[in-house]
From TrEMBL:
PANTHER family: UNCHARACTERIZED PROTEIN YJBQ-RELATED, UPF0047 PROTEIN C4A8.02C. This is Secondary thiamine-phosphate synthase enzyme. Gene3D superfamilies: YjbQ-like. The lineage of its organism: Bacteria, Bacillati, Actinomycetota, Actinomycetes, Micromonosporales. It comes from the Bacteria. SUPFAM superfamilies: YjbQ-like. Pfam families: YjbQ. Belongs to the UPF0047 family.
Length: 134
């Protein structure tokens, strides 16, 4: 199994970061198999969604609607509402597995692989790409 870890700078605010290009570079030339993407963080996840055209912001708005950053959370360290960030991976998991055909990730026309990070307390995230040969 081949693996690679990248660092993504997410800054100090909630973000949706498109990491498709990095994933494509990793998968390129590897033949057929599966690309597994994993974020080893308790407050971030991965989504396969359309980016641009407002979808990124719509996802962050949906997270805020579903999991508001309020002081109601029992998990209270960090910034206000940080407890919701620890609940996020139950809805947006920290992993995604995608088919790779002839060294190309088999994404749909508008699909992108995105790191979803609502936690402004951590400005950097690690993402692990693993390739499992078919």
């Amino acid at each position: 199994m081949d693996t690679m870890v990248i660092t993504v700078r997410t800054g100090g605010r909630p973000v949706v970061c498109d990491i498709t290009r990095e994933a494509e570079r990793f998968a390129e030339g590897r033949g057929d198999g599966l690309l597994h993407v994993f974020v080893p963080h308790a407050t971030a996840g991965l989504a396969v969604i359309e980016t641009g055209a407002g979808s990124d912001d719509d996802l962050l708005t949906a997270i805020d609607d579903l999991l508001p950053a309020e002081d109601k959370w029992r998990h209270r360290h960090g910034s206000r509402g940080h407890g919701r960030d620890h609940v996020l991976p139950a809805w947006i998991p920290p992993y995604a597995t995608l088919p790779v055909i002839d060294g190309r990730i088999a994404l749909g026309t508008w699909q992108s692989i995105c790191l979803v990070d609502p936690n402004g307390d951590n400005p950097e995230r690690q993402v692990r790409f693993s390739f499992l040969r078919g």
